[in-house]
Specification:
The strands form three sheets. The protein has an eight-stranded mixed β-sheet with strand order 3-4-2-1-5-9-10-8, with helices on both faces. A five-stranded mixed β-sheet has the order 12-11-13-14-15, with helices on both faces. The protein contains 15 helices and 15 strands. The protein is 41% helix and 19% strand. The structure holds glutamic acid. The site of glutamic acid has 15 residues, from helix 4 and strand 4.
Length: 379
């Protein structure tokens, strides 16, 4: 790649609005000593601060709990049994979260620890909860640091690797860029440590079966992911409209290096997270109910506004929070489809009322909007 095209590719990171950065165990924890690689972590924190300064939102997905905890517990090297990994994670996660807090506090950021299990990203209700929490943390200016809750995750229901977890987080947060900081600088046609003829692949726009074959199995034994899980992460990210970069993280200032054109593999999304989400909403087969709205609300929706409870005249059907519903105007014309922020029972109680009254009526403070415009597609 010529210098100028390398810098152009690097600036994909600079153009992103919301960036998820996944940091692997092999980078955070020194293999020989099992100690945290603090000096390096400080350079990454400085890069995160630089992203925030230029207006980008950052979510971190950090591995390292098990690697840090096993030293502390004196567990021998080699493969851990599941219960040993769980114990190591319980001990290591405290240290990991504390390290992030310390390095990011130097830049005056508030750090939020979020531990997720497989079900939090795969079950709709919990997915919506986790999504809302992330959204709220970001709105309040905090930097979420996410890891799998390894202490309670059991073999059958765990990610086990943070590459795919990071991709699910990126999808959940509608991030437009995912960076996997790794101990390799990108994707090759074969494993470069085994095959001298392996060539580097700078860009992927679609994860084809050939690419999956190239990724093969895992090489590094400090973390759990290998190239295979990174390519799976790429598949998830691309389907969510999020571009992804696999980059070498070992050097100081790993994000700055991507910005200035260091070699890395970009999985380039052909769509945006917003478009993907709207297409998904438009394509949801069976709306579970109907929100009937007055003329004012219908006009507001067509003008790009959210649907407020005040504009809803009555509610048909039975649905849960997060289910798809149809929005029907006063002449019986379907105006939009969207995801309701309230269940049908609650929607019936707050329809026709002002958003400020919601808390008094329902006993909890839900969203101001019945359907937020991000969750709405005009028909
Ligand atoms: N969640 C694991 C940990 O924090 C790491 C998983 C991975 O290496 O991808 O130790």
């Amino acid at each position: 790649m010529s210098d100028s095209s390398a810098i152009r590719a690097g600036s994909r990171l600079a153009r992103a609005r919301r960036v998820v950065v996944k940091v692997g165990s092999a980078l955070l924890v020194e293999r020989a000593t099992g100690h945290l690689n603090r000096a390096w972590l400080e350079t990454l924190a400085a890069d995160v601060a630089a992203l925030r300064e230029r207006g980008q939102e950052v979510v971190l997905v950090s591995s390292g709990a098990i690697a840090l905890g096993r030293r502390e517990l004196g567990l021998a090297s080699g493969r851990l049994r599941l219960e040993e990994s769980q114990a190591a994670a319980a001990v290591g996660q405290i240290r990991l979260a504390h390290a992030w807090k310390e390095v990011l506090e130097q830049h005056r950021f508030t750090v939020a620890q979020v531990l997720v299990t497989f079900g939090d990203t795969e079950e709709r209700r919990r997915y919506l909860n986790a999504r809302n929490t992330l959204e709220t943390l970001l709105r309040l200016g905090a930097i979420p640091v996410i890891n799998e809750n390894d202490t309670v995750a059991t073999a059958e229901i765990r990610y086990g690797d943070n590459d795919r977890l990071a991709a699910r987080v990126a999808q959940m947060a509608s991030a437009d860029c995912l960076v996997l900081l790794s101990d390799v600088d990108g994707l090759y046609t074969a494993d470069p440590t085994m095959d001298p003829a392996a060539t580097f692949i700078p860009e992927v726009t679609r994860v084809t079966p050939e690419i999956e074959v190239m990724a093969g199995g895992s090489a590094s034994d400090v973390g759990s992911g290998g190239m295979a899980t990174k390519v799976m992460a790429g598949k998830i990210a691309l389907a969510a409209g999020c571009s992804m970069c696999i980059a070498l993280g070992r050097e100081a200032h790993p994000l700055q290096r991507i910005d200035t054109g260091a070699r890395c593999t970009w999985f380039v999304a052909q769509s945006s997270p917003r478009t993907v989400r709207k297409q998904w909403i438009a394509g949801l087969l069976k709306p579970a109910g109907t929100l009937h709205v007055d003329a004012g609300a219908a006009t507001a929706l067509r003008g790009g506004k959210s649907l407020l409870p005040a504009g809803v005249t009555h509610v048909d059907g039975r649905f849960d929070r997060g289910d798809a519903v149809v929005v029907r105007g006063p002449e019986g014309v379907d105006v939009a489809r969207g995801l309701s922020a309230y269940s049908s029972d609650d929607a019936r109680r707050v329809c026709g009322r002002r958003s400020q009254e919601i808390e008094a009526i329902l006993g909890y403070r839900g969203r101001d909007e019945m359907i937020h415009r991000d969750d709405l597609v005009l028909l």
